[in-house]
Each structure stands twice: as structure tokens, then as C-alpha cells.
Amino acid sequence: MKALEGVKILDFTHVQSGPTCTQLLGWFGADVIKVERPGVGDATRKQLVDVEGADSLYFTMLNHNKRSITLNTKNAKGKEVLERLVKKCDVLVENFAPGALDRMGFTWERIQELNPRMIMASVKGFGPGPYADCKVYENVAQCAGGSASTTGFLDGPPVVTGAQIGDTGTGLHLAIGIIAALFQREKTGRGQKVLAPMQDGVLNLCRVKLRDQQRLERGALEEYSQFGEGIPFGEATPRAGNDSGGGQPGRILKCKGWETDPNSYTYFITQAAAWEKICDVIGKPEWKDDPDYAKPRARLDKLTHIFETIEQWTMTKTKFEVMEICNPLDIPVGPILSMKELAEDPSLRETGTIVEVDHPERGKYLTVGCPIKMSDSEVTVVRSPLLGEHTEEVLSAVLGYSAEEIAELKEAGATEVVKKLAAE
Ligand code: CAO
Questions:
Q1: For residues 33 and 66, is the Cβ–Cβ distance under 8 A?
Q2: Torsion of CA 63, 106, 198, 133, to 10 degrees
Q3: Which tens digits make up the pLDDT trace of 256-292?
Q4: Residue having the nearest C-alpha atom to atom 11 of ligand 1
Q5: Ligand 1 pocket, mutate which of 17, 96, 102 (most atoms under 8 A from CB)
Q6: What is the CA radius of gyration of the chain?
Q7: 307, 331, 333, 318: which is closest to 255 by C-alpha?
Q8: Does 167 qualify as catalytic in the annotation?
């Protein structure tokens, strides 16, 4: 038995934000039925193609543990099928452009008429307000949610981050909302609307930067490098380079081999509690009793010099040696791991966080499995569906259509004849 076993998801999502949400629900055991446009499907199937004729990694890595059904939801017969799906499912998840579902004829009022227990969950770029109608992608959300203005170096332009906090981050927010709504429905018997705007999700992840905005109004942010460097603060939370976001100063420092390996670096935190051990490790025992260095406050205006001194030591060690030496001493450090290193990491393979999946069109590929581990709800990663692979199965087994009715639906252009699998 899995956590969400018995829950049926009408998955009307595409691209990244919505699919990450429904993939997670699938990993928790929900039956995820992905509705795609006949002949076209989720646009990502054909984006960044690396194996000609096969679904892209972009698609396969976001759509595990789902069934795919093709349905033209602008066609009268297709709408009838969608109505039946709405009646059968517990949750409808969508991330269309604002208004698209209404234009299809599926307003929230209509959905409630069809199924008062339905939870309708949406990702949109913005919540209600001046930008509510905008189409939004990842980097737009990072910029509008406060991430870009606070990422990068002080003397450079705003920078977007590689972590997909706008898309996958919002998908996670939406999944949490859906699970809470399912829990509430147990008591009320009613569904509800769940909205996760991408701007709000990014801002939630940038919470500490809004903290700093308010602290800035009361004085300089003393843990930021620019304080020690004597650079005045402006009106808004500045970009802080690789400064630690918390109260303990930290930086990225070079390690042995940095001249040729772009990832030979470590993160190093001068945790106050570990200061004396840091002094010993880097060969500066005299700093332990020096009033200019002994206390965190005294160190604030010398952080650049301190980190340069620590770097002289880290440059004599590999990033893994730094980890091995510092970890037992409770000095917080972290190697900068490349995607290659992560892909090959045996312990991530062991825990199922990196999984090898076999796909009939493209062969074996790596994916990120479920990052949340539950002791009583095991996750098996199942390859993504081909376009419309489960159309007939869902129409007959879930919705009760007869073979003749399915043929009529195809005839009417509501669905299409699906690709048959040669390999399976
Ligand atoms: N049958 C028939 N029509 C279908 C269909 C189906 N099965 N599935 C979708 N469509 C139609 C929609 O009804 C819509 O039609 P109208 O414009 O006539 O109403 C049309 O396909 C296109 O949908 P869209 O506007 O959502 O798609 P887009 O590619 O133009 O925009 C995106 C993509 C992501 C910018 C937009 O969907 C959006 O802003 N979504 C919300 C925010 C979001 O999730 N962004 C993150 C995406 S990941 O980076």
C-alpha cells in the first residue's frame, strides 16, 4: 500500500511546474492520468531532443509513474470524455495559461457541478493582481519572486540560479496544497481550489532575503562581505555572492586542482562554535586568543582576510580531503559537486535518488527519483508513458467506454489511434 493509493489525478499539466507536482503524487501512489492533445502532447516531448524519434529527457524525467491519454478537449466528444474524467477523479491539476480552462468550458463552477469533491489545483505565474494574465516561465518567476535581484555578485548583474525554484519549486508547493486539501476533504466532504503562483513560491524560498530587507532598514547587514569591505549598502537587499545566508559567515574557497577543474571548490563556514578547531586546522592557533580574531563580532570586518587565509590551506587539499578533515571536527564544509559526480555517486544510487530507467524508445537513462523517503510508502520509478499509450485502457477500465464507443470517439476526432509498442 502506498500513501496516496486510491487517489485519482486528472493531470492536465505540461512543461515543468505542473508535471513535477503530479510526478510526485504518482510516486506517493496516486493514479495519475495525463491528458494530452492528440498528435502533439506535452510540448516538452519534442524539446531538447537528444535521441531522434524518442521522447526527450526533458519530458521523460518529469513524467514518470503516469498514464497518458490523448484527448482533444475542444472537440464536443472530447469534452464529454473530460466530463467523465472530472466525475471520476479526486484532483484536477493544471498549469495552463490563465483562462485556458474557462475557455475550454471547464470553469470552477462547472467542475463543482460535475464533482463537488473535486480538488482543482493550479500553477499560475502570478496570483490575482496586475500580472495575473501573464504567461510565465522559470526565469521570469525567479526574477519576479526576488531570487535574481539577490543572486550574483555585488558588482555584477542579477543572476538566475540553476535550481528550478520557479517551476519545480512551485510544483512542490502545489503538491503540499493538494495533500492538505485531500486531508481536509476527509472531514468536510468538499473539494476546493488550490492555487500556487510561481512568484509567491519563489518569494517563499527567498524568505531570508525579505528578512534582510527589514534588517537593512535598521542598519548595515554586518554578516555580508560588503560590510567588512566598507562598501555602503543601498535601499534594497543586495546580491551577496557566495556569502552564507545565515548568521555564520561562509564562502566558496578553492581546493587542490582548481586551476584545471572548475568544480575543485569547497564551501567553508566559519561556525562560531568551531572557531578554535578551524584555527588549529589552518595553522593559525594564535588567532584563538587574539582579541581581533577570537570573537565572531571582532572578525566581521576581517572576513575577506580570514577566508583568504583559510583558502591557503584548502588549496593544499582536494575538496573531499577538506570534507574528511573538517567533518569529524564539526567544521561545516561542503564539496562543490558536479552533475557528473552526482550521477556517479554510489550512495545516491543506493537510496534511489539517482535511478536508471529503461525506456522502449530511448534505452537506459538516469533520472532523479523521489527525494522524499517514507518508511511505509515505497517508491518505484516507472518510465514515462508514450503519447496516448494508455488511452484505450483508461477509456475502458476507468471510464467504462465499450470498444464501439472508443472507435466512435476516434472517428469523431476526440482521440487518436495510438502508437503501438514494438519493444514491449
Ligand atoms: N486539447 C485541446 N486543446 C488543448 C489541450 C487538449 N488536450 N491541452 C491544451 N490545449 C489548449 C489550451 O486550451 C490552450 O488553448 P487556448 O489558448 O485557445 O485557450 C492552448 O492549448 C495552449 O495552452 P497554454 O496557453 O497554456 O500553452 P502555451 O504553450 O501557450 O503557454 C505556458 C505555456 C507555460 C507559458 C502557460 O501555460 C502558462 O503560463 N502556464 C502557467 C504558468 C506555468 O506553469 N509556467 C511554467 C511552465 S514551465 O516553465
A1: yes
A2: 130
A3: 999 999 999 999 999 999 999 999 999 999 999 999 9
A4: 100
A5: 96
A6: 26
A7: 318
A8: yes
Adjacent-strand bridge partners of 251: 268
Residue 3 three-state SS: coil
Give the pairing of strands 8-12 and 91-94.
parallel
Regarding the beta carbon of 391 and ligand 1, being less than 6 Å apart is answered: no
* Position in ligand 1 atom list of the atom nearest CA 138: 49
Give the ranges where 120-219 is alpha helix by DSSP (H): 138-144, 168-188, 198-205, 207-216
**Strand 193-197 and strand 250-254: pairing?**
unpaired
| DSSP notation for 328-364 | GGT--EEE---HHHHHH-HHHHHTTSEEEEEETTTEE
Alpha carbons 264 and 282: distance in angstroms, whole number = 18
pLDDT digits (tens, 9 = 90+) for 217-247: 999 998 888 998 899 999 999 999 999 877 7
pTM equals 0.96
Whether 199 is in the pocket of ligand 1, judged by its Cβ within 6 Å, is: no
What is the 3 state secondary structure string of 48-84? Answer: CCCCCCCCCHHHHCCCCCCEEEECCCCCHHHHHHHHH
Q: How far apart, in whole angstroms, are the C-alpha atoms of residue 35 and residue 85?
A: 10
Q: Which of 23, 135, 170, 200 to mutate to test the pocket of ligand 1 (most atoms within 8 A of CB)?
A: 135
Kindly state if the Cβ of 125 falls inside 6 Å of ligand 1.
yes
Annotated catalytic residue: which of 31, 42, 90, 167? 167
From CA 416, how far away is CA 360, in angstroms rounded?
Answer: 21
Ligand 1 contacts CB of residue 71 (under 6 A): yes
Task: Look at residue 205 in the predicted model and tell me its pLDDT.
Answer: 98
